[in-house]
Amino acid sequence: MRARLAMVAVLLCCGVAAAQPGNPSAAYVYPAGGQRGTTFQAVVGGQFLGGVSAVEVSGQGVQVRIVDKPRILTQVQINEMRQQIKVLTDKQRAAATSRPGVPALTADERAKLIDLVRAMAIFGRRREAPSLGETVTVEITIAADAPVGRRYLRVRTGQGLSGPLAFCVGSLPEVSHPPVAPSQMLAVTGMDRLGRLRELIEPRTPDDVLTLPVVVNGQIIPAETDRHRFSAKKGQRIVVAVAARELIPYMADAVPGWFDAVVTVRDSKGNRLAWADDDRCHPDPVLSFVAPADGEYAVEIRDALYRGRENFVYRITIGELPLVRSMFPLGGQPGVPTTVRLEGWNLTEAAMRLVGQERGFLPVQGAAQESLDGRLLFAADPLPVALEKSGDASAQAVSLPVIIDGRIDQPGDRDVYSFSGRAGQQVVAEVMARRLGSPLDSAIQLVDSAGKVLAANDDTPDKCWGLVTHQADSRLLATLPASGTYFVHIIDVQGKGGEAYAYRLRISEPRPDFALRISPSVVNLRAGATAVVTVHAQRYDGFAGPIELSLKGAPAGFVLAGNRIPAGQDQVRCTLTASARPRAEPYVLTCEGRATVGASQIVRTAVAAEDMMQAFLYRHLVDMGPWQVCVSGRGIPRPADLVLTRQPVRLTPGGTAAVETNLPSQGAMGKFILELSEPPAGVHVERVVGEGRRSRLVLRADADAAKPGTAGNLIVNAYLERAVTPPPSTGPSPRPTTAPAAPPVVRKVPLGVLPAIPFEVVAR
After folding, report:
1. What region does 26 belong to: left with phi over 0, alpha with psi -120 to 50, or beta?
2. Is residue 293 within 8 Å of residue 234, measured between CB atoms?
3. The dihedral of CA 752, 757, 763, 764: what is its sign?
4. Which of 464, 455, 463, 462 is nearest to 428 (CA)?
5. E runs forming strands in 453-520
6. Residue 661's closest CA among 16, 1, 9, 15?
7. What's the rounded Cα separation, in Å, for the pair 343 and 704?
8. Is the pLDDT score of 56 beyond 90?
9. What are the residues facing 219 on neighbouring strands?
């Protein structure tokens, strides 16, 4: 009995809702935004949405009501529907042969056939593309005073909360095409096995001529080009700004990894007036054109490779609207008003005053930029600021520390700055341009007075900027060999230049620092259970020390285990154990990191992010607002400690170490198996030794593969190994058989994960 109770305790305490199939996954929302003061229907598509209880939009002023939920068909229902379709189609074919020209089906029968075929199309699409196959229809009401800007939409079911989707609240009028139906997708992808879908798709009637300004919402299906007509007057500069990749940043199963939109403007005769497939360094296209005459024009949008599916969602802003294309300078000091010169379209002023209240970034807003949030940023930094002296061919002298606001004015231009340094002094040179929306692809060099290049850098990735796919900003850290004059050179690698190619160049001694991201942004757990989370560290200016992690102000019962990022490492896998108290609303948790630099302590809050895959290979961290933990199910009394070993486990190459656990090795329902998840090189489980109601996990470090200095956390998955006897064979013959019974089949049932176990490989 005790062993059985212990087994049940393990099952309940280790069971992780986040690892089980059935957690809601939202792949797209269409339309992906709306105008303030309006009510409209939208479709949320994804997987495991059948038990949806709520759809939520972050921020104030947006209410969502569920109108229709996915209908999950049983196999019996599917077979019955197939039979009904066969009866009706057979009747139709027979009548067509015997009585040509006479309607084979009554109006009611035809309506029933259409409903059956459409229902089967939903089932077929769900089977063909399960991640997109379920839809929830909702009614969204946006208050007239709702703040304009980017929000996050999530779906809640009994299993937890989905990851977030971008949802835009705007001020301009909006129009939307009807959402793509499963029958459309099956028909155009060649999956119309019934042969009935294409004829049920009603041809799209020509759209009304749009009145500008307007935001147009749509979805692209394979080989399709959407066309939207509008009127303009001669001399008007019309701006067309697309948000597509902005809405769904990365797709794991598509190349290049997002909806790669191409937009074209044509006149009433079909002549092409303007075309774009990007916005300088951003994948979503933006263009403008001057209307040559009064009349009707059309905007066409398609995918660059003519792909498409339900999550190829777009928003096009069209109108004679102001759009800031570039600005100079790109930043200033916090609290100090900075006059910024603007370049763009339909601007009423050539300059504006910006004030950053603290070190960080301020988005530049505009009517045409409501859906383009974050493409152009103003940076605030407390260091002294200097402006580039344009036109000076000699090196411009600066005093450290300094941030230089400059620009590569002409293609092939090279800017050079000189400073005085002393022997042994460490110097950082860092460019911030691409991260702020400048198209500059920088490269920098540190050169001594004799012309010798001491250090150089082209690109330095920064994982905190996951939406910048081409990380083109430069950064270097060097120690000066002698006292004297040194030079920093900056160029555009591609040889380009112009008014938009602005930069901020920081030259200073190191400012050791770090930033944190925690993923996933939403954790779904059973009450009292444990899940794996990853904390990512972006280290700056040579900071390499350990970072201690903690939950700030978390409710009782939440525990972050393995809460330390070892020195020199840029991430660690931890475990989060949930409170035993479930609740309807998600918990919002805060994870902080602390590190000591000299006599100072640095404290940084981890930003919740989704670890997204691009095109089957690349990964990016995309910021997603607050860190939410959804706790469901009954409260579970759990043992005080599942892992009894307190100190970090120390392994020597070729040696072993033991971890004491509060788990039995055998239960009434089977044997417990403990396995390492993504173990470090050379570390594996040698054996598990049962010791009554406890067990000992014996780890071994390979003599050759395990490297001293390796540190982090061991993540241990728990399984129940059971022997299951297959049912007896039921052949067509009732004759008795003397064949031996089939041997039992051993199955591993996943139970969950143990709290993280810190470890370190040390030298002998």
Report:
1. beta
2. yes
3. negative
4. 455
5. 453-457, 475-479, 484-492, 502-508, 513-519
6. 9
7. 60
8. yes
9. 313
The fold adopted by the segment(s) 325-508 is Jelly Rolls (2.60.120)
CA 280 to the chain's CA centroid: 22
Give me the residue label for tokens 């490989």.
761
Torsion of Cα atoms, 587 then 590 then 591 then 597, to 10°: -170
Closest CA to 189 of 127, 259, 134, 243: 127
Tell how strand 475-479 and strand 402-407 pair up.
unpaired
Residue (of 725, 730, 722, 717) closest to 741 by Cα position: 725
What's the one-letter identity of residue 455?
A
Q: Six-digit token pair at 352? A: 């504006």
- Residue 532 token pair: 């794996």
Model confidence pLDDT, tens digit, residues 420-472: 999 999 999 999 999 999 999 999 999 999 999 999 999 999 999 999 989 99
Number of H helices, E strands in the chain: 5, 56
From 47-51, 62-66, 75-79, 307-311, the region with the lowest mean pLDDT: 75-79
Q: Answer yes or no: are the C-beta atoms of 446 and 486 closer than 8 Å.
A: yes
CB 654 within 8 A of CB 702: yes
Per DSSP, the residues of 65-98 read EEEE------HHHHHHHHHHHHHHHHHHHHHHHH
Q: Tell me, what amino acid is at 558?
A: F
Which residues on adjacent β-strands are paired with residue 676? 716
Strands 286-290 and 745-753 turn out to be unpaired
- Judged by DSSP in three states, 44 sits in strand
Find residue 190's DSSP bridge partners. none
Structure-token match 């040194």, residue found = 486
CB 332 within 8 A of CB 351: no
Categorise residue 542: left if φ over 0, alpha if ψ from -120 to 50, beta otherwise. left
pLDDT-derived band of residue 2, with 50, 70 and 90 as boundaries? very low
Q: And the tokens for 590?
A: 């805060």
Neighbours of 751 (CB within 10 A): 23
Distance between CA 479 and CA 476 in Å, rounded?
Answer: 10
Give the bridge partners for 727, in sequence order. Answer: none
DSSP state, residue 279: B
Residues making up the chain, counted from first to last: 764
Domain made up of 514-632: CATH architecture: Sandwich (2.60)
In whole angstroms, what is the distance from residue 731 CA to residue 443 CA? 74
Cα torsion 759, 629, 36, 52 to 10°: value is 130
What DSSP designation does 367 have? G
CA 593 from centre of chain: 22
Q: Using one digit for the tens of pLDDT, what is the confidence trace for 199-244?
A: 444 555 667 899 999 999 999 989 899 999 999 999 999 999 999 9
Task: Give the Cα separation of 663 and 9 in Å (integer).
Answer: 9
Q: Is 112 helix (H, G, I), strand (E, B) or coil?
A: helix
Contact predicate 617/257, CB 8 Å: no
Interval 155-193: pLDDT, tens: 999 889 999 999 999 999 999 988 987 766 665 555 444
**pTM given for the model:** 0.89
> What pLDDT shows up at residue 734?
52
What's at 676, amino acid-wise? L
The DSSP code sequence of 182-226 is HHHHHHHTT--TTS-HHHHSPPPPPPPPBPSSEEEEEE--TT--E
- Distance CA(210)–CA(216), nearest Å, equals 9
Helix, strand, or coil here: 751?
Answer: strand
Architecture of the 204-321 domain = Sandwich (2.60)
What 3 state SS string does 542-554 have?
A: CCCCCEEEEECCC
| Alpha-carbon distances, residue 652 vs 649, 688, 713 (angstroms) | 10, 19, 16
